[in-house]
Design goal:
By secondary structure, the chain is of the alpha/beta class. 32% of the residues lie in helices and 19% in strands. The protein has helices at 30-46, 57-65, 95-102, 114-130, 142-153, and strands spanning 3-8, 50-53, 72-73, 135-140, 168-174, 177-186, 189-190. Strands 3-2-4-1-5-6-7 form a 7-stranded mixed sheet. Helix 4 packs across helix 5. The longest helix has 17 residues, at 30-46.
Length: 196
């Protein structure tokens, strides 16, 4: 594989109200559908060889809106399980616990530990690389992108800004090493102030 294109799904109905989703299966909002439609021409020009998607509907709707209705659903590309925080407004959470969770050092009750999440998401990329694909598009979630940046290039989550909805992140994979080529590219340019 020479390049890995990572697209975060468009805004979901819970993103719009700043509620944590984790693995709750929320659809895209009308705004999210519009974001995906705007991003589709850019993704189409990249012409990936293989397209994988999380099996959660917000990611699958995004893949379809980008022009890839036959994208292969992959359950290991689901967002991190946030346990008891599922459906909670970010503003109601303990700020210190939330900060530690974003840094990958805390899991809410019933939630997934960062190392487990990192291992399952990176395994998908390793398998794709081993299959010899030149370019792969993965339509997924902000947490998955942060996990892949941690696992593939050593950028820990506490050093990363939020991944914008319907944004593109690009990694070049050469000689057994990954390099970040772009992050948070949207149809309008860059997502510099993506909500957490």
């Amino acid at each position: 594989m020479k390049r890995l294109f990572l697209v975060r799904h468009g805004e979901s109905i819970w993103n719009a109200t700043r509620r944590l989703q984790g693995q709750a299966d929320m659809p895209l909002s009308d705004r999210g559908l519009a974001q995906v439609k705007a991003l589709a021409p850019l993704i189409g020009r990249l012409a990936p060889d293989v397209v994988l998607t999380s099996d959660l509907q917000r990611a699958m709707q995004t893949a379809q809106g980008l022009g890839y209705p036959a994208a292969k659903p992959e359950p290991r590309l689901r967002e991190i399980n946030v346990g008891d925080w599922t459906g909670q407004a970010i503003s109601t959470l303990n700020p210190e616990q939330y900060k530690r969770w974003r840094a990958g050092t805390y899991a809410p009750e019933g939630g997934e530990q960062w190392p487990t999440f990192l291992a399952r998401t990176c395994a998908v990329v390793a398998e794709t690389q081993n299959a010899g694909q030149s370019t792969t598009l993965i339509v997924c979630h902000g947490g998955v992108i942060r996990a892949l940046l941690d696992g593939l290039i050593g950028l820990p989550p506490h050093r990363l800004l939020p991944v914008g909805p319907a944004s593109l992140t690009v990694l070049a994979l050469r000689d057994g090493q990954a390099r970040l080529e772009a992050m948070n590219v949207t149809a309008d340019g860059l997502s510099l102030d993506a909500p957490d």
